[in-house]
Amino acid sequence: MQVTLSAADQAFCRDVRAFIAAHLPADIAHKVDQDQILVKDDYLRWQQILGRQGWLAYTWPAEQGGPGWSVVQQYLFDAICAEMNCPPIVPFGTRMVGPVIQAYGTPEQKERFIGPILQSTHWWCQGYSEPMAGSDLAALKTRADDRGDHYLVNGQKIWTSWAHYADWMFCLVRTSRDERPQQGITFLLLDMKSPGIEVRPITSLDGTHSLNAIFFNDVRVPKENRVGDEGRGWSYAKFLLSHERLDNASVGFAKRLLRKLKKVARSSPQGATPLIEDPAFRMKLVEVEVRLLALDLRVLQMLGEMAAGGKPGPAVSGLKVRGTELCQRLLELLMEASGYYALPYQKSLILGSGQEEPVGPEFAATAAARYLNRRAMSIFGGTTEVQKNIMAKAVLGLG
After folding, report:
1. Residue of 130, 179, 198, 244 marked active site
2. Long-range pairs for 308-316 at CB < 8 Å and ≥24 separation?
3. pTM confidence score
4. Does residue 390 share a domain with residue 252?
5. Whether residues 131 and 214 fall in one domain
6. Residue 184 belongs to domain spanning
7. Would 398 disulfide with which of 332, 346, 391, 392, CB 3.0-4.6 Å?
8. What is the pLDDT of residues 3-16, one digit of tens each?
9. Are residues 267 and 380 in the same domain?
C-alpha cells in the first residue's frame, strides 16, 4: 500500500510545516525533543495556538468547528507534528468527550462545552477506571443516586491522567443495578471544583506525577450535565473507546522514537564506535522499523475505511496492541543504547527544570524515566490481554 500525495496535499504539508516553524515555542519543542516532562502550561500554550488557527480539533468536520480536513490531511498533520517536536494534543477534549457531546449532547451542552474544547480553555479528564474495574468497565461501582433535579455521586476512580489539572471530568457512573451491568451505566459531566471531589496524586515509577486517584463523597451533579439518556452510558463509552484505541496506536510517538534511536545509533559519544556499525543492533533497528511501517499503513487503511463511512470495529484493538509493543520496544532499544549512563536519576533533567549537566550523553538522561513511564502503555486505553481477548472473540471467532 503506497500513499501518493496530490499537489494540494503537498501544499498542505508546506503550510503546516511553515505554521509550526513560525509558532511552536522553542522551549516546548526542546522539551519534547529531549523527552522531558511537559506541564500544563506547555500543553495549553501550544493547544491554544492551534485553537486560534482552527486546527486543534483537526479530526472534526467543518460544520462542527474543525478544519474539515481529509483523512490523508489528518494523517499528514499528525505525522508532521510528531516530526517537528510538537507536544501531543491532550485527547480528552477533542478526541474523546467532544465527539460524544457532538453526537449525543443537548444543544445547551454543545453551546456550553464545544467552544472551550475548541479553544483549549477547559482541561478535561476521563473518569472510567476504578480499583476493581479497569478494562472491564461494566464492573464499575461508582454510583449516582437520583435526587430529583440532580444526582448524588459517591465512589472512586483511579489512574486518572491529569486530573490535578482538570476543570471537568467525563465520568461513567452506575445509576441502576436492576438490568445487565452494561445497561445501568450513565455518562455524566462533572465540574472538578464541585464540593466532595478529592484528588490524590499517584507517583509513577519515574518519580513524576501525572496519574491520580479520585474520591467522590456526595458530589452533586445537575441532571443537565448528563449526556444522552440515563442508562445508555455504555453505548456512548463504546463510541468513545473505539476512537481512543485508534489514537492509542501511537504511530506519531513511535516515529519520533525511531528517529531519535537512529540518531543515537549513528552518534559516537566519547569516541565510541557508533551502534549502527554493530550488525546485531542494526538488525534490531531494521526489525522495529519494518514493523512500524506495517502499523503505519494499517492505520492509514483504517482511516480510509472510516472516511468512506465505515466505523472502527473490534480490529482496532490490534492496532492498540501493536502500537504499544512497538513503542515499548523502541524505548528498550534506547535503554540498551544508553547502557550504564541510564542509571543516574537526574530529576531536573527529566523535568526540564534546571541547568544540571547530564552524567553521560544527553539522550541517556531521560532514557530510564521514559522506559519506566511507558510500561503503562500495556494498561491504559485497555490492557493488552483484554484487547487480545476482544480480537480472539470478535475478529477471529474463537471462544
Report:
1. 244
2. 311/242, 312/242, 312/243, 312/245, 312/246, 313/242, 313/394, 313/395, 314/390, 314/391, 314/394, 314/395, 315/391, 315/395, 316/242, 316/245, 316/246
3. 0.88
4. yes
5. yes
6. 124-234
7. 392
8. 567 899 999 999 99
9. yes
